[in-house]
Write a structure and sequence with these properties.
This protein is α/β, with parallel strands linked by helices and about 425 residues long. It has helices at about 85-95, 115-125, 160-170, 185-195, 210-215, 240-245, 260-270, 320-330, 335-345, 345-350, and strands spanning about 20-25, 30-40, 40-50, 55-60, 65-70, 70-75, 75-80, 80, 100-110, 135, 140, 175-180, 200, 220, 250-255, 275-280, 290-295, 300-305, 305-310, 315-320, 370, 380-385, 385-390, 395, 400. Bound molecules: zinc ion.
Length: about 425
Amino acid sequence: MNDFIRNEPESADGRDAIILRGRVLTPADELAEASVLIRGDRIAWVRPGREEVPHAVDLSANGDVIAPGLIDLQVNGFKGHDAAGGGEAINAISALLPATGVTGFLPTVISRPLAELGRFGRAVAATEVAGARVLGAHFEGPFLSPAFRGAHEQAHLRTPDARAVRDVVAARPRLVTVAPELPGALRAIETLAEAGIVVAAGHSGASAEQAYAAVDAGVRFGTHLFNAMARWHHREPGLAAALLADPRVTVGLVADGVHLHRTTVEIALLAAGAARTALTTDQTSAAGLPAGRYLLAGMDVESDGRAVARTDGTLAGTVATMDELVRRVASLPSLGLREAVETASLTPARLLGVDGLLGRVESGCAADLVVLDSESRVRLTLVGGRVVYRAAEIDGDGAVSGPAAHASVTQSRVKKSQKASPAKRP
Ligand SMILES: [Zn+2]
């Protein structure tokens, strides 16, 4: 199993079982009324109907939807913490993400000098986290097209020569985004894939033919499809259309209402299906906070509360959260909550090769779960059977009752009590 799966408790002994009841999205199937028993760090069983289990702690509420914890392949930062800052920032992000239903993520860094990427890879591998699991590092670059660099700094882009590729492999990222049309890129893709790294295509002007050659070489993901790619012309479909069409590839969609029109999201999902579509937030340290100036891999960026841009106006990531993306996709006319959850859990887990343990509500799988209320808002999040987030409940008189006593990391979406720290600039 993946080296980066951590948080497994030393022993499940002495811990009470937890029972959840409600509509269960497995997410391949939908069970209108079912019960999920959690023992230790695993799901013991999933049974249809409302089961009674003596002594189990019942964390259910009316209207609950029980789904696999959400997995985000592209997290640059969150709530004032810039992932590129290293261990402390990554740990803080891990603690905060469960409030958005996320139980696993790839801390992401955009194009930086190779030595810095090496440090980032080591920090990701070494960081012990208390909340959402760290599933490895995503290097978005540095082998990207200068013509499609978006917010990446030209000075940090590299051609994928053998030495640079060796340095990237040595940094042990889980996912690397590459522009397939660069000289040497196909060889680089083969080398990265042979090293067990998931290779994505992105920030690229590749033609459809170049895209298919890249998939033959080992590309299996499309980073923020349509954004920072050649436009789709019906006679020159380019990278985005080719990745959508190729059954070997999973496509990443930043369905935040800014980066993609909802019709584009719907068409992409109709073409690739939920099994080949992964929602990604591409969120930055501005996500979860008001408009203002923030950091992205050390660069100044500005959030207007809807999107994040560099000072020259280039889009530079999002303020989106995974639960918000799930709600947006679930509201599309041809889709529903089950499909939306699949794109944010099982599909990214499968891409990373961890779907034997993560991304499923099935017996034997890790008890990484999100419980949504009747409006698809996050009510409860568990990682390895531990409650890592519990939304405060509002009593009949409007009083807010506190989070669960045994929650090791809690935030309240009612109280909005967190204080953001570090990366926000004065
Ligand atoms: Zn990008």
